[in-house]
Amino acid sequence: MGEEKRDERAKTPKPAEAERHDGGRGRDDGRLRDIEHRVEDDLKKAVEYEKADIAETGREWRDQLRNDGAELAADFERDKEKVRQVADDVRHPERIAEAAEKKLEHVADETLEVAHAVEHPSVIVDDAKQVVAEKKHALDATAATIAAEFTSPADEKRLPVVLRAFGVLLIVGSGAALPGIAKSIYHAVALFSSGGMTGEGTSTIAVSFLHLAVLVALAITFIVFGVRLIRNQRRWAALMSYALYVLIVAGGLCSIMLDGISYDLVFYLVVLIITIALQSYLDPTLLEERRAHRKAREAEERKEGEAGTLGRDPSGKGYITLNFFNLFWIFVVASILGLFMEEIVHFLFVVPGQWQDRAGLLFGPFSPIYGCGAVLMTLFLNRFHKSNWLIIFLVAAVIGGAFEALTSLFMQYAFGAVAWDYSNMPGSLFGGRTSLPFMGCWGLLGVVWIKLLLPFMLRVVNFIPWNWRYVLTTVAACFILVDAVMTLQSLDCWYERLSGDPVDTPIQQFYDHEFNDTYMADRFQSMTIHPSDAVRGK
């Protein structure tokens, strides 16, 4: 009996141990309750957001129905009034006769005016002068409005002598370059007319003439830009920078297609850097406007982040705000998702059981054609997010097919690279660069993207804390930019090796050593390079 009591006492937990045991369980219960509360709060916020979205959609539908009803009622009233007038005229035929008499009197008056004008021609001249004066006044008012838009308080400041001298240098240099470009165009046209270009491909001829046209436009724009600098028209010059950006990019792409990654690109890079630097200096109000907009946007982002609506278009016209942050992360996420989707489709349907790396950049799981396609679809279809799926399908099919064809054209002309060829597929278009079935796939992807994935994408992006957004985006954008530049350079070196050209520059030797043919063929398994298909070297 004594031993049984001792055993029971031994089994009974001591008070201190029981307290510690209960305290630990209490802390666990408290943490669980905190987690449950946070989950409940998140669910409530999500439900409230969805309710608000549904309520907004309902309001838009009700407003549309109300407007349609009002228009129908107005049309009905107008038709009713016309019927009433016709019936009233039928009951009173004398009114028709009176109207006919008034019309005859009006015609007679016009006839007398014409006869008077014929007898007195000066009346016609005076009327014409009055009409011309009124039109001139309207044109002057329009010109004054446009001039006001293109003037800035910064125009009152005189530009430094160095910049005005730079403007003179631009005029002189571009003017001196124009005869040389014109001579090149003349020789190219003469050579083409005489059949001297028969040995070159049609693509080479087309890109060569396009490059010459871009150089002419660039030289003329530089002359006008220099004139604006001399006249101290800062805002005009700053706004002209946007035209220079387009021409510089077009010239750089043509140069890559004709000569690959060569030292000619240094010219375009230097001009681009100078243009960017000049634009902000020439019109500080543009920079001040951007700074004020950025500060206001940061304050709005803080509020939107707390409300859970960050990234949505505040105007309600589109679904998502079209800023660099949203578009960049759309590019990144779509590049990754598109790559995995293509690899899975290839593994399951194209060559069952064979896994193929279909990456499009030198580093990372990225397929930029899907990223660029998603950005283009977002830009063009953002306002159609509530439209009929058929409209979205058709627009997305055209955008995707055109982008796919242009990308294939650039890659083949620049590096002789072929990553896809639909020539043997029914509905092939543009020499197999795209096809109707794949345009249908682009259309389907556009519908899925706008209707389903874009809202999901916005939620994923909003997981990035608002105070990390700019730093993280800057770092990621720099990585993608370096990755893209190194990809182009490695493809250029791959082309040089396959075409038998010497690899003698330090950059080429670096890529030749680090990214040889075996590495490139393994990295870009879906791509082949045929130097004879490229524009250059012909």
Question: What layout of secondary structure does this protein have?
Answer:
Elements: H1 2-11, H2 15-91, H3 93-119, H4 121-149, H5 161-193, H6 202-230, H7 234-259, H8 264-282, H9 284-307, H10 324-350, H11 368-381, H12 389-415, E1 417-418, E2 428-429, E3 434-435, H13 436-461, H14 469-499, H15 506-514, H16 517-523, E4 528-529
Antiparallel strand pairs: 1-4, 2-3
Q: Count helical runs.
A: 16
Shape: extended
List the strand order in the largest sheet.
1-4
Q: Please describe the biggest sheet, giving its number of strands, its sense, and whether it closes into a barrel.
A: 2 strands, antiparallel
What low-confidence regions span 5 or more consecutive residues with pLDDT below 50?
1-11, 13-21
Percent range of helical residues: over 70%
The share of residues in extended strands comes to under 5%
Mean pLDDT: 79
> Count of DSSP E strands?
4
Structural class: mainly alpha
- What quaternary form is this? single chain
Order of helices and strands: HHHHHHHHHHHHEEEHHHHE
Rg? 35 Å
N-to-C span: 109 Å
Report on this model:
The protein is an all-alpha fold. It contains 16 helices and four strands. Strands 1-4 form a two-stranded antiparallel ribbon. A two-stranded antiparallel sheet has the order 2-3. A hairpin with a 4-residue loop joins β2 and β3. α6 runs antiparallel to α7 and α8 packs across α9. It is extended. The N terminus is likely disordered.
